[in-house]
Amino acid sequence: xxxxxxxxxxxxxxxxxxxxxxVRRTRKDTQEKYxxxxxxxxxxxxxxxxxxxxxxxxxxxxxxxxxxxxxxxEELHTLIDSLSINKIEEEVNGTITKVQG
Length: 101
Description:
Elements: E1 2-4, E2 8-12, E3 17-26, E4 33-43, H1 46-60, H2 66-81, H3 85-100
Antiparallel strand pairs: 1-2, 2-3, 3-4
Helix pairs in contact: 1-2
């Protein structure tokens, strides 16, 4: 698993790259609040997951104005630049090898 910022993570199973977002939920029976992960999408490549992350970040701004959108995109691109796509691909390949081998 690779955490991206405070709200997202990328994981891999034997078939997909999985992008998940951290969410707050409330238990129905006790009203207790807890943190959980909600799947945002399944992708065939790490790059696809990263593109979806950028698109989601833009949607999260609710397109209030152009400056907000541009600022959010710059923030996300800086975050992506700090990631090692090779690390994600190595993790994915390792996971696939473990499942197949």
